[in-house]
Amino acid sequence: MVKQTIQIFARVKPPVRKHQQGIYSIDEDEKLIPSLEIILPRDLADGFVNNKRESYKFKFQRIFDQDAKQETIFENIAKPVAGSVLEGYNGTIFAYGQTGSGKTFTITGGAERYSDRGIIPRTLSYIFEQLQKDSSKMYTTHISYLEIYNECGYDLLDPRHEASSLEDLPKVTILEDPDQNIHLKNLTLHQATTEEEALNLLFLGDTNRMIAETPMNQASTRSHCIFTIHLSSKEPGSATVRHAKLHLVDLAGSERVAKTGVGGHLLTEAKYINLSLHYLEQVIIALSEKHRSHIPYRNSMMTSVLRDSLGGNCMTTMIATLSLEKRNLDESISTCRFAQRVALIKNEAVLNEEIDPRLMIKRLQKEIQELKDELAMVTAEQKTEALTEAELLQLEKLITSFLEDQDPESRLEVGADMRKVHHCFHHLKKLLNDKKIFGNNTVSNTVSSESKDQDCQEPLKEEEYRKLRDILKQRDNEINILVNMLKKEKKKAQEALHLAGMDRREFRHSQSPPFPPGNPEEGQRMRLSSAPSQAQDFSILGNRSSLLHKKTGMREEMSLGRQEAFEIFKRDHADSVTIDDNKQILKQRFSEAKALGESINEARSKIGHLKEEITQRHIQQVALGISENMAVPLMPDQQEEKLRSQLEEEKRRYKTMFTRLKALKVEIEHLQLLMDKAKVKLQKEFEVWWAEEATNLQVNSPAVNSLDHTKPFLQTSDSQHEQSQLFSNKSSGGWEVQGQGTGRFDVCDVNARKILPSPCPSPHSQKQSSTSTPLEDSIPKRPMSSIPLTGDSQTDSDILAFIKARQSILQKQCLGSN
Ligand code: ADP
Ligand code: MG
């Protein structure tokens, strides 16, 4: 058992704007416990929750400042946890902090660069690397990915559903059995045999999460995501299985509702989030207080799911993500305070070992048979008649196969018949003597002297009878115990079957393994056969792009107008830079991989040649030795030495290149997944933008037929005013200008990367768009009802024409104002 308090780490996010001096300082040397001091500027301190403290100090295990790399975070925080999970302990890493402080960046990673990959992909990579290295055990890895939003759980890994909203995903519910074990009904577990498969699952979940998010639910900031790696290990031949779970948790934004200042519907939702974090806090307070018997885990789904991670059988680590800018200081102080409480919680992690009942039953059955034999041997009447010819033949066959069996544990089972036992000894003796005659001393030497007396059949003496009677009594008791144990196991197995029947996809989440205890393969087979569609799921995973394609709304089904509009949208989208950059990197990596592949092949054939040369040289030397009647020299000659060192060198080169190629493969795979994800996002945002353009067209315009006759834009007079109106219109049509700049330059630069499509237009901005602007005036009107929102290609080209008209006006306007 490992007793440990929850480890707390802090990570400071780089500020959006330039470094703000003097807001915080990190003291690494303070008696080896680093501390973070947050210094409140005077003006803020005055108004800060009824006291005027200016400085707050918090201790952490370690504090990672703005420049900490993802690699460093993984090495220092996640790797030790992953290490104990590999040993068989449960582990949890959770990120806590306000929205935008870097929780997702830390747990999953950034969407742009390979080097930005976060704890989950790095941990997967590490775990699979370790599993490959360790051939002493058999491992099974399963992945699950759960999202909790508004107290509802959703399975992010269900590929059968094309989620366009959270509600489309299968709902996960909590069940508790009489032993208070938590079962998560409907959460699927997917086996991952390689890092690549596991990564595919991560990206599938993330894509589902992104697609299911709408401007209204803002699930990414208001939900908790729990990515779990379930690891089982077993030594060959052993009946003991070890199970461990690693939860990697991206919590909802920790901001307090009072500070967000939102109202109406949004307020209710914000309260919900805070409610579950509030319950988390309550659990943590209860755990950090001594002598508290009741811990309110059951108040929320998240605390129920993470029950083991908080004060239970788990090694838990918290990362407090901090965005230490002036306006975020109060939230950062709350985060640090929360962490200080968390640090008081003690967990007790134990090795989760279980006896595999199938193997156990086999062993018990064997033992029972042996006991029965022994019993029969002592109690049964001694048979005196001679063995028949057939029986003797049968025995000799048994002996032959026993002697030929390479398994050191194989046994010669002849049953409870002393005549047979004696015949076996006779026969074995005969065989040995025969071997001796043929001069095989090595075997005869190993014969122990005891065997020489084996054929004497003395009657059992009184003393021996007594001893045997005692043993018999003892065995009787043992048999009773064993039979009872068997009965119990049988009952357990029946219960497990019953449970599986109730819901086959349900799994024991808290204390139990990812597959029913027993043979891991068996468990997996059960799971697959219970959900036949899951077999197909993996082929879906394999064909990632087609799945993503399906999810994004099928470009091939787009009308020409829509496709053209998509090209315009893509060109102007900020993410297209990332996609292009990644494409370039991918190209480079591909050619690097290709070149490496060629060099590896060359090295391989060179190794082959060198080996061949060495062999040839050997043969020559032997031939020379024979022809000249000389002994073969013991030491290789110089030429051979040289060949050997060349061979070693080539092997080293081969290994280095191979390792690099393997790493490249992972990087390429990751980049492809990042690009797929970016594409899905782009497509999703396009759909939103497109729908809005259609609405704009409905509201503002136009007999589209007369778009050709678009009046030139009203020039010069009041142009500043018009531009700002135009800007607001543009923004309502799905665009916003990044940064603080209002204005002319940004608006003019229609195609500049600075302009981002806005996936989440606010109702407020939509209202604005209905007010008339010069642009709208410039586009002739068409009756509202005549343009449906979605639909035929005619409408699509109407919208495209509308977009183009507006663009050309914007451009003209820019030229005019320059
Ligand atoms: P959260 O999940 O806490 O709401 P995110 O992880 O989404 O926050 O981070 C918000 C933004 O800040 C993202 O664009 C992310 O890429 C960036 N970011 C966060 N932490 C870091 C970091 N340590 N280094 C660089 N960029 C970061
Ligand atoms: Mg996030």
UniProtKB/TrEMBL annotation:
Task: Tell me which residues bind ATP.
Answer: 97-104
Question: What gene does this protein come from?
Answer: KIF6
Keywords, ordered alphabetically? ATP-binding, Coiled coil, Cytoplasm, Cytoskeleton, Microtubule, Motor protein, Nucleotide-binding
Where are the compositionally biased (Polar residues) regions?
A: 716-732, 763-775
Keyword Nucleotide-binding set for record: yes
This protein is called Kinesin-like protein
> Example GO biological process term?
microtubule-based movement
Could you list the residue ranges forming a coiled coil in this record? 644-681
Q: Which is one GO molecular function term here?
A: ATP binding
Query: Record's InterPro entries?
Result: KIF6/9_C, Kinesin-like_fam, Kinesin_motor_CS, Kinesin_motor_dom, Kinesin_motor_dom_sf, P-loop_NTPase
Location in or out of the cell: Cytoplasm, Cytoskeleton
Q: A Pfam family name for this chain?
A: KIF9
Native source species: Macaca mulatta
Q: Which family does it belong to?
A: Belongs to the TRAFAC class myosin-kinesin ATPase superfamily. Kinesin family.
